[in-house]
Amino acid sequence: MLESIRILDGQADLLAYHQQRLDRTRRAFWPKCPAIDLARVVAEASPPARGLFKLRVEYGERVRKTELIPYQVLPVTSLRLLPADEIRYGSKFADRTAIRRCLERKGSCDDVLMSQRGYLTDTSYANVALFDGRHWYTPAWPLLRGTRRESLLEKGIIRASIIRDRDLPQFQKIRLINAMLPWEEGPTLDINAVMV
After folding, report:
1. What is the per-residue pLDDT across 68-107, written as a single tens digit (0 to 9) for each?
2. Are residues 98 and 9 in the same domain?
């Protein structure tokens, strides 16, 4: 399993949300193992006092590996809408083989916007929010309930909604959101940048 934690100027972002997800996953897969304290894992990684980093924490019964990686937001200017009915990603797995297979079908687009049984889910690395001119909505059934998504829902910045593929024309914009992308910094595209 995996957690990707945003570290900016030595400070971990959304740590309580990461801890909740890690605890939930470990209760499901390794209920008898001792707790993992992510605050301690972050401290032991000794993040630099300046700069933006991704702390990648691989775990199972215990923390297996940590890696602190300088991070830059990659530009995303187009998405290919693709069915991904075969993907199961309810926990954040380190093995992303099925998602990589879906990405291989993106053609000239920068990323994929996946759907399952006709309902929008996520891109290959982010949850999404769609703007209808008044409100931002996120798919009610994402592949993974991301930490940033959970935080934005709790704050009322986005609303969960059932969004079908065919509903895309009702929206003006789509924004990518994940732990590494604060709301204001998530790549935001016009809805016509989604290739159907």
Report:
1. 999 998 899 999 999 998 877 665 565 667 888 888 999 9
2. no
Measured between alpha carbons, how far is 149 from 96 in angstroms, rounded to an integer?
A: 20
- Domain of 159, in residue numbers: 79-195
Choose the final residue of a domain: 33, 48, 70.
Answer: 70
The pTM is what?
0.91
Q: How many domains does the chain have?
A: 2
CATH at residue 52: 3.30.470.10
